[in-house]
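Researcher: Going back to the complex we discussed earlier. I've cleaned up the inputs and rechecked each line, so this should be the final set. Can you rerun the prediction on the complete assembly and write out the structure?
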Amino acid sequence: MPDYYTEIIHEGGVVAFPTETVYGLGASAWNRDAIQKVFDTKGRPADNPLIVHVSGLDMVEDFALEIPTEAKLLIDHFWPGPLTLIFKKKPEVLDIITAGLDTVAIRMPRHPLALALIRQAGPLVAPSANTSGKPSPTKPEHVYEDFGYDFPVINGGFCDVGIESTVLDLSIRPFEIFRPGYVSRSAIEKILKCEILPYRQHDSAEKPKSPGMKYTHYSPDADVRWLLPDETISDPNTIYLLHSDFDDIKSHNNIINYFGDFDAMTRELYDRFRQADREHVTTIVIQPFDSTATNELLIALLNRISKAIGKIY
Ligand code: TXA
Ligand code: MG
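Model: Rerun complete. Updated structure for the full complex:
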């Protein structure tokens, strides 16, 4: 890790860095002014709290009031990795991080460059490194698109997972998924040997428990919609994302067939959204998922696509 990036953080600046999920916009978790720059850079509403990124359990202890036994089991099994845990917070955690809540979200990313930066620079708040409302960045070009070509970005290539971490609330029992992600509910339940509440959409009258989920985001400028039954796949001004049942269609130009590889579809989703905007394509059409499918990654994919379509909070 070049000292250059650590210095920017130590001097109260912000740096975009790769994680295994999406690129993060990092600032020191102990520097209020630096964290304010994160909100300003993104145009992020102040009521949307940030995740603290750590490189070890000792750092968790600086932010979390208590670490329940279940958290230790999950940390042993899933960290470093795409699982964010919400704890009751210590009083000294800055309010700007938690948007005034009495809880704090923490995760240890798996990307070696993220871990190296945190080890040197200390714990970092890091929302996704995109302008609020845009799809999260999964490669450096995406960060440049939003923040300009002079922006400091640590280049880690394409992100492995491609969508944001699973967010699990451990501050109240029963535990509840606030944001679905690559780490599935059943994988968590298997480790905890107890049931946790699934992610659910909150209706707009209800105060959302995870403030970020109330914002329509992850959306490209292009319209996103589902493929209709019997629709022909032929409009050159549309990007089609297919996954199954179209064995005769090979991927080319504006038609991308994942042939059942949902990991690849997840990894590329935001890049395809951004491709549409770059190429001034007006519509993205996605093949609907089979509602009887057992692959839990589809819950997370469906969540991100539905948000891009703009139908859910
Ligand atoms: O994969 C990820 O989590 C990426 C990478 C960069 O680590 N980060 C990310 O951060 O997605 P952001 O800020 O885009 O999303 C954080 C989510 C939001 O939905 C926010 O509302 C929720 O976590 N969150 C943060 N702190 C919370 C808290 N104390 N209680 C409830 N929800 C919280
Ligand atoms: Mg985000």
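Model: Worth noting: Residues 19, 21-22, 24, 48-51, 82, 84, 86, 98, 101, 103-105, 109, 126-128, 164-165, 167, 178-179, 210-213 surround threonylcarbamoyladenylate (ligand 1) (CB under 6 Å).
Researcher: Good, that matches what I expected from the previous run.
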